[in-house]
Specification:
mainly beta; about 50% strand; 1 helix
């Protein structure tokens, strides 16, 4: 079992920055990749960014590429999402998620796929005002 807990959300004006953190605990050797997702009211869940636990690859959603950076500190078992040049449309609940060994294939090869992720946090709210 793996537990993930997000923090760092808040309110910011457009053009500003925020850094989200996700502390992971449990049997981390069972995890192959981690990711950030977001969901705004009335919208489908969207894959924001994903990373291999060895920091050997990363993938970004089209809407955040070149603005957001995903990183992982393996010594601290903490995942980060640095969000720059924030826009009002980035407002959403942001979730951290982890996927077990052998479950990151589509995320690595094609696009961030929420169905590959087993462990989810409770979310942290990000609100960007214009």
């Amino acid at each position: 079992q793996v537990q993930v807990v997000e923090s760092g959300g808040g309110s910011v004006q457009a053009g500003g920055s925020l850094r989200l953190s996700c502390e992971a605990s449990g049997y981390m050797d069972s995890i192959e990749c981690m990711a950030w997702f977001r969901q705004a009211p009335g919208k489908e869940r969207e894959g924001v960014a994903a990373i291999g636990t060895s920091n050997d690859w990363a993938r970004y959603g089209a809407s955040v590429k070149d603005r957001f950076i995903i990183s992982k500190d393996n010594a601290k078992n903490t995942l980060y999402l640095q969000m720059n040049s924030l826009k009002p449309e980035d407002s959403a609940m942001y979730y951290c998620a982890a996927a077990g060994r052998g479950r990151c294939g589509r995320t690595w090869l094609l696009q961030i796929d929420g169905t590959e992720f087993t462990y989810w946090g409770q979310g942290t709210q990000v609100t960007v005002s214009s």
